[in-house]
Specification:
The protein is mainly α.
């Protein structure tokens, strides 16, 4: 879970840097708003929600001691895969592989 969260943050940073030279310097919970600000309507609502969902568990997953159910982890990985596919496609269309 922690690695999935870090990966979605890295994808988000790569896009915002490429699009406008901006990187999220605040709490990671603000990353979805920055991505929306940078991409506007080019950010699909479903990807925005995937990002919000993954980041909503960041502190608990990285600093907490709570165990996570396997289904929750699978859902997170599925969201990451979907977000990652979209992010890679967005970046590749702009010359970044």
């Amino acid at each position: 879970m922690s690695n999935a969260i870090l990966a979605v943050i890295a994808y988000t940073d790569a896009i915002t840097i490429k699009a406008e030279g901006k990187i999220n310097q605040k709490d990671h919970s603000t990353a979805p708003a920055l991505l929306r600000s940078v991409l506007g309507r080019d950010l699909p609502d479903a990807r925005f929600k995937d990002l919000q969902n993954l980041l909503s568990t960041k502190d608990e997953m990285q600093y907490g001691v709570k165990l996570t159910m396997q289904d929750t982890a699978r859902d997170a990985l599925s969201r990451l895969d979907t977000f990652g596919d979209w992010a890679k496609s967005w970046l590749e269309a702009r010359g970044i592989a």
